[in-house]
Amino acid sequence: MVDENRKERGQGAELRTDGHVAVRGAKGVLVTAEAQPVGNGQQLAMARAQGLLDLALQQMRGLGEAARTAQAVAADYDRQRGLLDETLKELKKAGVLVSAPDGMGLTSGTDLQLTANDNLIATAGGNADFGVMKRFTVAAGELVSLFAQKLGLKLFAARGKVEIQAQSDDMHLMSDKDMRMTSANGRVTIEAKNELILRCGGSYIRIASTGIEDGTEGNRTIKSAAFSRQGPSSLGESMNTWKHANFDEEFVIRWPYSGKPVANRRYSVLREDGSVIRGVTDTEGKTGLQKTLFAEGMRLRIDPE
Fold first, then answer.
1. What is the pLDDT of residue 2?
2. Domain spans of the chain?
3. 205: which residues sit within 8 A by CB, 6+ positions away?
């Protein structure tokens, strides 16, 4: 190929226009960088591409079996098999197969969208690396399953919170060996609305809003410099004495008909843990600071004189 001055500008063939280009094949399109010397071979020769797709299918099948054994959710192997056998192989249907033996690049100066009306399948014989400078989001309408066969999972946040929630069902954490929870510079809080049970072998501690129960089939030893028994208390009452808490709120009680503060009146705050905290409002109708570890609802009432 030469330019307007008859200087060589490359070898081979180039399709170029200042307008649009459309490539259409009603029965299918094969785009490949594989060699076919002097035009020998079939038009739809795709042996190497077919071999790579078969290999990817075998790899996905092996990982899928391992995932099912671990009770994770496996990829849809049958769907991938159907795409390969019924559409891409020899272009039996109107599909597009793009193949390159030594690598492929796909870039965009702005956005890049990949869309599949049914399944989107990606397989790598080595690593799959995703680098995102801002946000990386994954949303699934039904289920998300992560499975690592050999070396485990790692999830780190250099800054900001890590939040894991089961918003309408149970959450199970299980390990074959040791399990550790550590707060390097704070505290560890375990909270349950109804009941908390710690169990090891035949020994247990049961904590509920109605009381605390513990039991063991063996000996129980308490080692302490001092041991004291005090009157009844609850977590809600205790938290109000803490210096720091995740949430704190001071309420102002006003008469509904005038909007004036309810000054110097006895009140009760009913906490979610069942505790009732009583006090007297100040001259501005303030109740005093109520502290909690988590956001919770409270009921506030004015007590009779």
1. 74
2. 45-99, 190-219, 235-302
3. 197, 198, 199, 212, 213, 214
Length of the chain: 305
Cβ neighbours, 10 Å, residue 290: 21
Ramachandran region of residue 149, left (φ > 0), alpha (ψ -120 to 50) or beta? alpha
Query: Would you call 247 helix, strand, or coil by DSSP?
Result: strand
Locate 217 and state its tokens. 């089939």
Taking 3-state DSSP, the helix, strand and coil percentages for the chain, each rounded to the nearest 5, stand at: 15, 20, 65
**pLDDT over 80 (residue 106):** yes
Residue 57 CA, chain-centre distance (Å), reads 27
Radius of gyration of the CA atoms of the chain, in A:
34
Question: Tell me, what's the pLDDT at 112?
Answer: 92
Tens-place pLDDT, residues 34-74: 888 777 788 888 888 888 989 988 998 898 899 998 889 88
Q: What is the spatial distance between Cα 121 and Cα 77, in angstroms, rounded to a whole number?
A: 10
Q: Share the mean pLDDT of the chain.
A: 86
CA distance 215 to 7: 93
